[in-house]
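Lab notebook, entry 310. We have the chain sequence and a SMILES string for fe (ii) ion, and the next step in the workflow is to get a structural model of the bound complex before anyone spends time on docking refinements. Request logged below.

Task: model protein plus fe (ii) ion, output structure tokens.
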Amino acid sequence: MPDGTLPGRVRPALTAPHPHQDHELQAKLAAWNRVRLAPQAPRSDWRAALDEEHVMRALEIDFIETTRMAQRARAQTAPREPAAFVPWFEDLKQSGPGQGDALFPWLAERATLDEMRWFVEQEAAGEAGFDDLVAMAQVKAPVQAKLELARNYWDEMGRGNAKGMHGPMLEALVRALRVTPMIETTLAPSLALGNTMVAFGTNRNYAYHAIGALGLIELTAPTRAVHVSDALRRLKVSAKARHYFDLHAVLDVKHSEAWNREVFASIVAETPEAARWLAEGALMRLQCGADCFDAYRRRFWGGDGRTAPA
Ligand SMILES: [Fe+2]
Ligand SMILES: [Fe+2]
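Result returned:
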């Protein structure tokens, strides 16, 4: 290997930054994800496109395998019986990486409107589209899990009513705050979060990781949404504009209960060895969040981001 690249690795292991902090890598993946998930026309240069896809998929899988290794040991402790797996999973709400982060009470009580605008911009740019991720996750899922994923998807779709769709609600907040989420101005960890979810959704080897990570979002989103809602209300952002966070502060509590009972319990009952993959996906998603919160605190508070200015 002329440049010190190890076999099976795309990037040199010792010199590269942690993938969550590697803006060049994450921006490249985010731009590629935007293109590859969009509907496209047939191409006459499909062989060249396939070669390019091979390079990008290798980058993606290398990134995911690196971050997966960091969670492997903890994920292996996940119980393989449904009755024990669900409480183990629910405990991540307290004990998972990034949970109870000091960022959120600070947003609720202290952040300025400009700081909240920046926060929403970062969060929106890293958003991979929960609805599409659920749709991808349900392919060939066992019946009980598939039905719950369908109910969850239907809620994302406003139960068939455009005004109730969740994705456009976030877009409405982005418009009301007049922010422009862009890959170039989004921090590496925020891009990494979206890229991780897309990697899980598009690679069938990570199908259980996708279901674990999506269930983890339902489990942990309400606490954060309450704080973000409080911040937006304090800053007099209209109820209509902040509806996305008001809604998820409440609805995801129900989504999470149903997801754990219907999706996790049925998958672990049928495929006990999937427990560790569900757990790994959830822990990887938690670590993505924790790295975002850390980066946001550094940006807002300066220095190492550990102490808010008085
Ligand atoms: Fe939602
Ligand atoms: Fe939800």
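Notes for the group: Residues 1-7 have pLDDT under 50 and may be disordered. Worth checking against the assay data. The pocket of fe (ii) ion (ligand 2) is lined by residues 218, 251-252, 255 (CB under 6 Å).
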